[in-house]
Design a protein that fits this description.
CATH class of the largest domain: Alpha Beta
CATH topology of the largest domain: FAD/NAD(P)-binding domain
Structural class: alpha+beta
CATH architecture of the largest domain: 3-Layer(bba) Sandwich
Oligomer: single chain
Mean pLDDT: 95
Distance between the termini: 9 Å
Largest sheet: 7 strands, antiparallel
Number of domains: 2
Low-confidence stretches: none
Strand order of the largest sheet: 17-16-13-14-15-12-18
Strand content: 25-35%
Number of helices: 14
Shape: elongated
């Protein structure tokens, strides 16, 4: 059979390699001169390629339509993907949270391996942008390209990605193609994305990077804690970013102004009692010093005026004049500094696009359309998204493999 794969990213390469190994003639249509550009920038160029977890743990890390993925991930597990990469000359290592990276810490090694998997199987790559599916009598018979070329096919796999990082080619083309075929497209929205805050102290602390703080996210509507983590984050001119914040964003499924509040613990290694003792010790050593100048060993310089305002303490007040009530307010703000959230940063800045082709209209085992024969979907174009940690790339690999193997 003549198979066209639209998109040469993680899902497209897996689909192309798998389909070619079934004996089909496979052509990958990729709009960029080099395929898998988005994979190149994942994990800050290190490429967190998958997560070395069980299928059950994997599904639990997919808040949007996780059960849909059960068949695909069971058939092609994270461990299967790891074996495929190592068989293709990419040694791997597993780090904290079961995150898997190439030993080289170079995403290009992953790109070379997955593109090689497709090409070694017999797939060929052509440059072009698919703008229309040709559908006749309920079957997909080919693709029309932007330059007017018409490519005939017995089967078409749409693996175009979402619409985050549009510079890599993910501009939402797959949603347009799916709609042409009559598919329901759930509105795209950002996931794994930085957060905007109305708090003026965020730009005041712009550039402040935290290595070991704790983050708690509270849903103010339900009064429940929805996320907690320990790690890195960053203050920016618009709000907050960094690994912990990106992870937290995936848990904020009902984003609205005022819905969520972040609480930062600047000293997670100290209990409230231990922190109070530390503050008392610092005050005793600097009893005649202004408190605004006395906290330099405890807190980052940019934070001190902010935390003092929150604790309602005059920065010019001497340490020996600080009351117990003021000291305890200071302690409590250091252990739980609130940051209000207005919303997500734009979709174009998100690592992952949530929303996409409704999985109710897709066969979970084969990734084939239930509406149009000869048409399949794989990867981020589908309405599935996961938490950070290598899960989203594995979704692309597993669904791509399912689509390619079941042509």
């Amino acid at each position: 059979m003549n198979v066209l794969v639209i998109g040469g990213g993680a899902a497209g390469c897996m689909a192309a390699g798998a389909a070619a190994r079934q004996g089909h003639t496979v052509t990958v249509i990729e709009r960029n001169p080099r395929p898998a550009r988005k994979v190149m920038i994942t994990g800050k160029g290190r490429c967190n390629v998958t997560n070395n977890c069980s299928v059950e743990e994997f599904i639990a890390s997919v808040p949007e339509n996780g059960r849909f993925l059960y068949s695909a991930v069971t058939a092609f597990t994270p461990q299967d993907m790891m074996a495929l990469l190592e068989d293709n000359g990419v040694p791997l290592k597993t780090e904290r949270g079961k995150r898997v990276f190439p030993v080289s810490d170079k995403a290009v090694d992953i790109v070379d391996a997955i593109v090689g998997y497709a090409k070694q199987g017999g797939a060929r790559f052509i440059e072009g942008r698919a703008v229309k599916l040709n559908i006749e009598n309920g079957a997909c018979t080919g693709v029309e390209l932007e330059d007017g070329r018409m490519l005939a096919a017995d089967a078409v796999i749409v693996a175009t990605g979402g619409c985050s990082y549009p510079g890599t080619g993910s501009t939402g083309d797959g949603y347009t193609l799916a709609a042409q075929a009559g598919h329901t497209v759930e509105p795209p929205r950002p996931s794994l994305v930085a957060l905007e805050s109305p708090d003026a102290f965020c730009p005041d602390m712009q550039g402040l990077s935290l290595k070991n703080c704790a983050l708690t996210v509270k849903d103010n509507h339900t009064n429940k804690i929805i996320y907690q983590d320990l790690g890195e984050m960053l203050f920016t001119h618009f709000g907050v970013s960094g690994p912990m914040v990106l992870s937290a964003s995936a848990h904020m499924r009902q984003m609205a102004v005022g819905r969520y509040t972040l609480y930062i613990d600047w000293k997670p290694g100290l209990s409230p009692e231990q922190l109070d003792a530390r503050i008392l010790r610092d005050f005793a050593e600097r009893s005649n010093m202004d408190i605004g100048n006395a906290l330099g060993k405890l807190l980052p310089r940019l934070l001190i005026p902010v935390i003092l305002r929150m604790a309602e303490i005059n920065a010019a007040k001497k340490c020996n004049a600080i009351t117990k009530e003021e000291r305890l307010r200071l302690r409590d703000r250091i252990k739980a500094m609130p940051v209000r959230v207005d919303g997500f940063r734009p979709l174009s800045e998100a690592i992952v696009t949530a929303g996409g082709v409704s999985v109710k209209e897709i066969n979970a085992r084969t990734m084939q359309s239930r509406l149009v024969s000869g048409l399949s979907f794989a990867g981020e174009v589908l309405d599935v998204d996961a938490y950070t940690g290598g899960f989203n790339l594995q979704i692309a690999f597993s669904t791509g493999m399912a689509a390619g193997q079941h042509i």
